[in-house]
Amino acid sequence: MDISQLVQPERVHRRIYNDPEIFEQELDKIFSVAWIYVGHASQVSKSGDFFCTNIARQPVVMTRHDDGTIKVLFNRCGHRGAQVLSSETGHAETFRCCYHGWEYATDGTLLAVPQPRGYEESKVRPGDPDYGMASVPRVAEYRGFVFASLSHAGASLQEYLGPIASSIDDMVDRAPDGEIEVAGGIARHLYHGNWKLVFENLCDGLHPNCVHQSSIEAAQQQDDAVYSDGAGEIGVRQMRQNGAPWEFWEDQVGSWAYPFGHSYLGDYHDDAKLVAARNDPSFDDYFKAMEVAKGKERTQEILGVTRWNTNIYPTISFMSQFRQLRVIRPVSVDKTEVLGFCFRLKGAPEKMFHDTVRFANITNAVASPVLTDDLETYARIRRGLTTDGNDWVAMARGLGRDKEGADGGWCAENGLSELHIRNMFAAWSGYMAA
Ligand code: FES
Ligand SMILES: [Fe+2]
């Protein structure tokens, strides 16, 4: 199979979404090479804390070692290979394998084996790296966001993020104390479709008006007096915003794309009760906390950054306005797991975090009247692409109208462009050809 034939300037072959052989190649050539988001430093705030996840389907664990550094280890015993940690999160002084009790330090060093007699003639000794829990080749952190790569070589994390690091800055700078932390539970779902679909959808400005029509109409019909109960209000307001008119998307919403497949969509919200920069009194306590910490001018500058979802290809999509982050985990060619995390802005009034959780319920939880539409769409794409009617999937909207930006990226004509999809496939082709 000649992979290079599958991506054309305005369309891609459907095999990219439904061929198991291509999926296996993606695990090898993309997920085993790129920087993959592992977790946030606040998930392992104390030494001995751990968070289990996977990279290219391989189980790994992020831990805080007793010297304060964060480690990412393969979650595999040095003895006969059992997965050592089975809980997703937890705290332990040492990690002990369930099978024969080999015990490891929080940096993966083998500490002890029960009944060491019998190993005299072998290399098995505490501290021998061949029998420890091995470290993932490269681990790096940007402002608390921890990434790891299974590849020993390649761009540094800083080079890999490039200008898209400014979206992480946007998320963190909104905290009066300059730090954010993961809080609350994980909104988790599995959808029946290829992993690429969610990245395409999260910066797709054309779809909300169509696919989310039922919740937009329901929200538009809702009487203001009824929904203003706090918890429900944010949901109704957000669903109304999904119905922003085409002119708004075309005149006021942009979309930007960067090397390595990263992109972000400009904000499409004009509701002062949702957007902190618009000076609604409901944000007064937050403004005050920000101004005390950062001064008036810097506060305006920080809150004046209005981005919607940022995709850091190929693992996360996040959004600072409501402090949400989704981790996308490919499971198989037509199965994808998504984990939604909420962040608390340290030093901000608790109301901001309540908004975050309410917003997560509207957009990331499986009972959401919005997310369910998107999941149904992914399932329909999966079924539609099994047909022989047409081998090609279009990504032509805005083609030829993208402009090169001063920061090394590209700027789309407007928020309805498919620039971000073309950009992800440019990165995809580069990875797959390597
Ligand atoms: S497999 Fe872990 S101690 Fe034997
Ligand atoms: Fe959607």
Task: State the main characteristics.
Naphthalene 1,2-dioxygenase Alpha Subunit, Chain A, domain 1; 2 domains; binds fe (ii) ion; Rieske Iron-sulfur Protein; 4-stranded antiparallel β-sheet; globular; alpha+beta; binds FE2/S2 (inorganic) cluster; 434 residues; 31% helix
Helix-strand layout with pairing:
Blueprint: E1 7-8, E2 11-13, H1 15-18, H2 20-31, E3 36-40, E4 49-55, E5 58-64, E6 70-74, E7 89-91, E8 95-96, E9 103-104, E10 110-112, E11 138-142, E12 145-149, H3 157-161, H4 165-173, E13 180-191, H5 196-202, H6 208-211, H7 213-221, H8 224-227, H9 231-241, H10 246-252, E14 255-257, E15 263-266, H11 284-294, H12 296-303, E16 307-312, E17 316-319, E18 324-332, E19 335-345, H13 350-363, H14 371-384, E20 392-394, E21 403-404, E22 410-411, H15 419-433
Antiparallel strand pairs: 1-2, 2-20, 3-12, 4-5, 4-7, 5-6, 8-9, 9-10, 11-12, 13-19, 14-15, 14-22, 15-16, 16-17, 17-18, 18-19, 21-22
Helix pairs in contact: 7-9, 9-13, 11-12
The protein binds FE2/S2 (inorganic) cluster (FES) and fe (ii) ion (FE2).
